[in-house]
Write a structure and sequence with these properties.
Layout: H1 16-25, E1 29-33, H2 37-46, E2 50-53, H3 57-60, H4 72-83, E3 90-94, H5 103-115, E4 121-125, H6 130-139, E5 144-149, H7 155-158, H8 168-184, E6 188-192, H9 196-205, E7 210-213, E8 221-224, H10 226-229, H11 251-263
Parallel strand pairs: 1-2, 1-8, 2-3, 3-4, 4-5, 5-6, 6-7, 7-8
Helix pairs in contact: 2-11, 5-6, 8-9
Amino acid sequence: MYVENTSAPARKPVTVPGLKAMKAEGRKIVMLTAYDASFASQLETAGVDVALVGDSLGMVVQGRSSTLPVTIDDMVYHTAAVARGLSSTLLVADLPFMSDRDVPAAMDAAARLVAEGGAAMVKIEGAGRVCDVIAALAERNIPVCAHLGLTPQSVNRLGGYKVQGKTEEAAMRLLEDARAVEAAGADLLVLECVPAALAARITSELSIPTIGIGAGVDCDGQVLVVYDLLGLTPGKRPRFSKDFLAGRDSIQAAIAAFAGDVREKRFPGPEHSFT
């Protein structure tokens, strides 16, 4: 599925069981988004563990106001492009809006992302009925990354891009959802815009790794949109992000700085987290 990146240092391929081993050993997981082969090559050379082809491409690449218009054809196209720039970095791809409306639809979409796009894992937002989809995919040996907290595909129901789990009731519901997606068979969990203390509790209770974005330093790893990391996103930068290109002379140096700060627990700081 992947092609060799000759500019990247040789290393063993990152695997799904390998991510769980990293959690057990206390080694932080570094994840970044990528949408094309060139950026994928930069991630590979910097030793990033996981590349995520997010449906965020709808906003940062296509210039849309949300992720909702992104199609499965869009996702397959960009996933295949990213795969061409990787050799050992694990590739994860989002299931776009409504592609998980039922188990057969999710199966078809996931099959395309894996078979045509070259993804090693698919990401799906939410819990509840989504757990049936996770279970069905896991039963067919398709690794799943769950996504809880601020789930951009639910932006209309949530009333905007807001921190989730702030009240005691909401926190308990999020904790229960985290337990449910793990029980359904998820191998990884992204926590987005969640109070740091709640994310730390979820991380301590689950056996699968958690990846934070605006969820504090105690998650098992961190992810950012690569355009946010480079200060390229128009308008106000999200609180949970940081411009790693500032003061550095290359994209490669910025990505390497992000990876180093995640692994040494220097990022995110309190100023990038929520209470």
